[in-house]
Amino acid sequence: MTVTLADVAKACGLSPSTVSRALSDPGRVSAQTRDKVARVAREMGYTPNRVARSLSMGRTGTIGLIVPDVANPFFPPIIKAVQARAARKDLVVVLADTDERAADELDRARVLSKQVDGLIMVSPRSPEPRIAEIGRLGPTVFVNRRVPEHPSVLIDNADGMRQAVEHLVALGHRHIGYLAGPRRSWSNQQRHAAITEACAQLGAELVTFGPFEPQVQAGVQAADLLQGSPATAVIAYDDLIALGVMARMSERGLSVGRDLSVMGIDDSPLSGMAYPTLTSIHVPGAEAGATAVDLLLDVLDGLHGEPPPPLVELETYLVVRSSTGPAPRR
Amino acid sequence: MTVTLADVAKACGLSPSTVSRALSDPGRVSAQTRDKVARVAREMGYTPNRVARSLSMGRTGTIGLIVPDVANPFFPPIIKAVQARAARKDLVVVLADTDERAADELDRARVLSKQVDGLIMVSPRSPEPRIAEIGRLGPTVFVNRRVPEHPSVLIDNADGMRQAVEHLVALGHRHIGYLAGPRRSWSNQQRHAAITEACAQLGAELVTFGPFEPQVQAGVQAADLLQGSPATAVIAYDDLIALGVMARMSERGLSVGRDLSVMGIDDSPLSGMAYPTLTSIHVPGAEAGATAVDLLLDVLDGLHGEPPPPLVELETYLVVRSSTGPAPRR
DNA sequence: CTGAAAGCGCTTACAG
DNA sequence: CTGAAAGCGCTTACAG
Question: Do B151 and B87 reside in the same domain of the chain?
């Protein structure tokens, strides 16, 4: 019922080989053949069977994308970017969401790796050894995690963090709180380190709370922990936690930006939606996604030469909105 | 380099046929054979090539999922649910995001349809005829859109809408605004119709504004249009628009819930994150996603009999939070 | 430029 | 219960 290469060949009075060439590498057949095949194929409504092609070519035209949580607003822009970039390169993307369960990552990666040309692991939560195992499944690029011997797209938190602390210090804040993310998060470690350094350099006192899950609810909880603290400003591991803090403060009748300055990280679409709007550190998720696709393609195409795995580092910067303001007088 | 069925067969001293059976239908071989094959396969690290299997079986074990916008918080829960349900059934899901461009839907569907067993189209924006064409590409289930001759998962807006209007009327609101979604949105039509009916029955005056894009920014714009209106409460096409309205009102120094009651639709995770928290009509996105997978599987498995295409209708209900309150005295 | 042949790695009637 | 054979629909050296 569905028309195959052989059907087209028969209709043209040509061999399947020739039809195949006419369609995929028109330069290698006569102009006459090319035109005829093109016409007949169109008339018959022929569309190549990608599965068959995959089998004989050893390439599926598919890449796998694994993220911790589609519902966390940090990831959708990445997913969109990967998807868009892949589509432009005629690739299709299969998606898996691990629901923030680190233990599921390897499993999902195993399944996907069998039907894709390569994998993009975004913010993987697995411990070191398991990450290495994932890397061995096939061509893999990591986003937001440095993995030895593998191409990775990293976020350089240093600049953004420094700008953030500078901003707060300039506003008169001397005691800054950091609401830590989960321990399994690689970027939490990076962020904590960067902020610690920035505070040391700029003469601010740092107090750390947490760890907290990257969810609004955790921020609500964090807000209450802040009560006895001298911190007049807090930087949250991500925007979700920051939003939770804001919501809770408002609920308690406190003014965010006056009584307490709150800053998020990610600059997710949410930041502009909150009220007051959330000052946040921009993390270029979309660029990271697109870059990851490019890197993966490089690996797939250049399977021969083994150049040192590329490591792209993307920059962060502060976006000031309304949730941060002058330190309150004491 | 990668071990195949044939390798395992040779190592076992059996034919590939037998090894294939031992692995996929153990009941059809001797216990001894079964055990041996299982052991050897494991030892050799054999994993079946899914592409080859797909080609010979005519099933890819993959389903396609097309959504308008991954970044719209209404869709992630659906995506997660589809993904989770599919994973449990040993299916992998390939995702496409059309960026709210109705014109891209058919194209993306065409590409995907060639490498999946079936398609799930969520809230498709294409006009009628093009939707029909998509339906002809292969087994397809539609979510949030009624398509003749095709299984669909629909959202029954009537209950939720009625509850919403009842709630507002009970609070003393007599003039209600509806901030319409885009014309291409099927559910916008449904919602508009349902709210119109509810208002008529409950004796409230309805004023419609829009259409607006499902984005926060559009809500900001809508808030200003409300200025001269007698409406003391508004129901927005979706939570994003509602949030925009809220943000803008707060910016203008007005109190949401007092000066103006605002209600969203979708009850997306966002609703609980806003301040004040957003009263919204719950739309069971996750259930819809899971149901869609089940329906699709039914179609795929029962290709023989042609029972009338199932049409599942999911209910909506009101979730009262803090953005709605008594009508202000005039 | 074109064709016959082999191969990609599995599955599945058909015999035995 | 097991095997030989054909087939899924394409691609690609190898000849000519």
Answer: yes
Q: Is residue A139 part of a domain?
A: yes
Local structure of residue B308 (DSSP, 8 states):
P
What are B213-239's pLDDT values in tens digits? 998 889 999 999 998 899 999 999 999
Is B321 part of any domain?
no
CB contact under 8 A, B71 and A77: yes
What pLDDT, on the 0 to 100 scale, is given for residue B253?
A: 87
Task: Give CA–CA dist A146/A137, Å, rounded.
Answer: 17
Protein-proximal nucleotides of chain D (any atom < 7 Å from a CB): 1-5, 7-13
The reply to whether B56 falls in a domain is no
B240 contacts in chain A (CB < 8 Å) = 273
* Same domain, yes or no: B294 and B263: no
List pLDDT tens digits, range A140-149.
999 999 998 8
Q: How far is the CA of B94 from the C1' of C11 (A)?
A: 25
Question: Which helix (H) or strand (E) segment is A142 a member of?
Answer: strand A140-143
Q: What does the pLDDT average to over A25-47?
A: 88
Q: Quote the domain boundaries for residue B83.
A: 62-155+285-316
Distance B126 CA to D8 C1' (A): 34
- Taking CB atoms and an 8 Å cutoff, what residues of chain B touch A83? 70, 95-97
Instruction: Please list the residues that pair with B92 across neighbouring strands.
Output: B62
Q: Is B266:B36 a contact under the CB 8 Å cutoff?
A: no
Q: Closest nt to B18 (CA→C1')?
A: D2
Q: How many domains in chain B?
A: 3
**A271/A284 Cα distance (integer angstroms):** 14
**Percent residues over pLDDT 90 in chain A:** 75
- The answer to whether residue A264 scores a pLDDT higher than 70 is yes
